[in-house]
Give the backbone structure.
Amino acid sequence: MLIISTEQLAALDSTMLERDVSELAKRLERDHPKEIALEVPLEARLEFVRESHEEAKSCGLRTKEQIYLFAEARLLFGIGFHKDSESHPTLVSCLQDSAIGTDEKVGALSEELAFFVAFASK
């Protein structure tokens, strides 16, 4: 049986998080070059994704894809979109409700992003 200490596990988590943060920042740059250039300076992009990760966790989102969707929404809707009940009331209510499951939260986030992208390009 392999025994991993708490310190080793924390170091592994930290390494994996930084790798994921870097990948997600590059993906945002690829998927939204204009928006990220306007909204997030180059030197702040990794921190933007780290903050997105922390905020996403507070809404019950955990996976890399869920964190990407959340970071994408922060980029397109504004950093505090998940707390702004005036701009996105249904989405905010969904994300803040601990009784709502992750799949439903991801669905609501994906739907809101798709709606935004469909109409923002027109």
Remarks:
- The mean pLDDT is 87.
